[in-house]
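Ticket opened by: R.M.
Priority: normal
Category: complex prediction / small molecule

The reporter submitted a protein together with fe (ii) ion and asked that the result be attached to this ticket for the collaborator who will pick it up next week. Submitted input follows.
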Amino acid sequence: MVEQTILSFFEKDHRRLDALFERFQELKHDNFTEGEQFFKEFKYGLQKHILWEEELLFPLFEKKSGISSGPTEVMRQEHLSILRVLRKIAEKVDLNDFSTDGEEKELFEILSRHNLKEENALYPMIESSASLEEKKEVFKKMEAFSEERYRY
Ligand SMILES: [Fe+2]
Ligand SMILES: [Fe+2]
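Result attached by the on-call engineer:
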């Protein structure tokens, strides 16, 4: 992950996850099995992304800004809503029930607003205030997350 910035890496991960979710939406009615695979990749990826943020990025933001409630607290609350809707979709998909349009719309709305806030405020703040060492440490720790923590 040389030359990678926190801002660009996490923005790219948002786009990657959006694309997986869109593939699921496109495929779910025509190719059930493939649709489900895309949903799983999306779900695991999003759960991992959220863990990275809550355990590495948000603490770094809190340390650099001196603000431990407020922005990160709002982001953590939104993660709970995101994970709640994600679970609702997963429960249906597990039963081969793809009548998830309503939940998908809800998830898309929360997630797009949430991602924008991170991209416009939180990530740039971390990018500009954290040292190169601190950023390297984040990337190093990101690779050390065990799969069972997010592949569920
Ligand atoms: Fe987030
Ligand atoms: Fe994010």
